[in-house]
Specification:
Distance between the termini: 40 Å
Radius of gyration: 24 Å
Number of strands: 21
Mean pLDDT: 87
Shape: globular
Strand order of the largest sheet: 9-8-5-12-13-14-15
Number of helices: 21
Length: about 525
Amino acid sequence: MINKKEKARELVSNWSKTKINETKIENLFNIEGNDLYWMLKGKLLFVGFKFKFWNINKSLDDWEKKKYPHLKKLKKYFYFKFIKYFIKAVLLMRTSKKSSINKKIINKKIIILTYADQISILEKKLKVYRFDSILDIPKIKKDICIASIQPLTYLKNIKKTKEMIRIEDYFDKQIIKKSKKEANRLNKIWKNISKSKLKSSLSINNDSFYPYFDLEYDFLFSKEWLQLIFLYYYTYKKIIKTNDAKIILTTVGLLDEPMHLAAKNMKIPSIMLQHGFLDEYAKFIDLLDSQYYFSYGKLYKSMILKKFQKRVFITGANIFDRTIDFKNKNKPNKKHILLLTQNLIESNVLDKKKYFSYIKKIISKLNKFNLPIVIKLHPAEKNLDEYTNITKNNKNIKIVKKDNFHKNENALYTLINDSIFTISFGSTTILDSIILEKPVLQVILPEYNVTELNHIKNIIKISVHDDFKESIKLLIDEKKSKQITKNNLKDIIKLIYKLDKKSSDRIIRNTLKILKK
């Protein structure tokens, strides 16, 4: 039986089919014949959107408990007001430089959309996080163009090559004017809808959850946010046309949806590659008619709605193709316990105080074993100082942050191989650890638990509040831990299909298959 919060999520997902004043929302908010809300709803449904206070689970908890402190709402109000001013300033800076790129400069069949901070040049070779193994395939390399975006960060000067372009270089006067005009038009429609109508449209059994989401909806339909997504939407269309692109590949990011919609309107297919765990959100994946989804394995395909099954391809997880190269490179004298952290603060799953209370608790439990501890930070984390403060008096702990990985892209695998066992709340580094035949301790938090890891039955799971003693004894027992890792390696296939280093080949093979349709 679907509970109240699940019904609310489904309503949020399908809200554009709801009528306001006898008109469906998808017809009220329409961009070039397409439902605008399709580009917005993912930001409500998927935990991990860029902005503070933004978490559908917490908002629905407040709704269910009928507890929404005035101070909390006031903080959200001023925060979103600040973000709108920030986006306005970004738009002003982005649009002050007009593009002169109006002719074809490349001729690539496949455009891969990524973010500038995921691109680096190592030994004169282009490296793109999540796509490296695809770029290394010789038969397709000449047909690929990397398109980088920097929507809300400082605009870096990226060296443009024959295999890479920067989206922002394609902004032009016409696109800027059009995006502003459309944003103003649709924002005006939004403002003219009464709060009572919105409350009614977002209700379960006459119990409206809109008051707990009103600031989020106001933000998504604000002039600033709409102008930003339209600026990229129209620019994506220009890039597809200018460069005669035939197909688009993306993972998940801040402004990927406008690219998929642009591809649809330009009558070319687009592909979303799975990145990370999907958990309960898989059923909210909503594919456009021109859109395909490449999943890690059978489990994930089965989680996606039946009506999309013909456009879901199982490719395996290309992000683990490189991991396999580091198998059997364990050092005989294992050095440390490896704590692999997550960006749970930045993803709005936990506030800073709560998150670091858990980190302190874990460190305290590990210290009892008098073993060296390495804390490897997630690349998106921003609280290095806090980690430094809580470990400064402990010489047994070393912190490794993102910057350490620019010169040595294989550092993560080395850290895992050098470890006795790894600890994580539920990041995909658990899968890296299993592939490298390391025992894993998954620490379950009250606010966070990746349920698909339940399919790997021999991961040692423990609540953050429990005693770790017996679990750690088991993990440092070499004979027992070997059997655990052996069983985990069998179970991992349920999640990521095959460990044959051919996931990237399957991605390209299926991409070319779609192109021939």
